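In line with agreed milestones, the collection of sequences with tokenised folds has grown. A representative record is reproduced below.
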Amino acid sequence: MKIITNSPEETIQAAVMLGKHLKPGDMIAYKGNLGAGKTTFTRGIAIGMGLGDNVTSPTFALVNEYRGENITLYHFDMYRIESEGDLESTGFYDYPFEDNVAAVEWSENIEEFLPEHTIYITINALGDNSREITIEDGGRFADAWN
């Protein structure tokens, strides 16, 4: 599925729709250049999950956690991860993914370690504010935008 957005607000709204349909155990793997809108999209997911909009880039923290009453969104930045040893040192394998949702920026660096049913989201900048967002989810979220 492809979505075109023309502002950060539209990107957030598209992600809100997706966030409303996420469930425990979902893993989102982002692909996209620096500044493409991965953190903006994650902000929308958090809003859709009922976790608020206080989402920031996890670049220096490696992971930010957004906790709700019944679910947590783990937001990872894997930009500096170059090996399985690097990934292990982040504590990635210690997170309770089966009960929560994870969003991984720079997922290309850990693609071989992601679960089989990972949701892939590619964000490409078409202009200053326009984005092409491709969601590969096996058709699971097709009804989210209808």
Observations:
- The chain has three helices and seven strands.
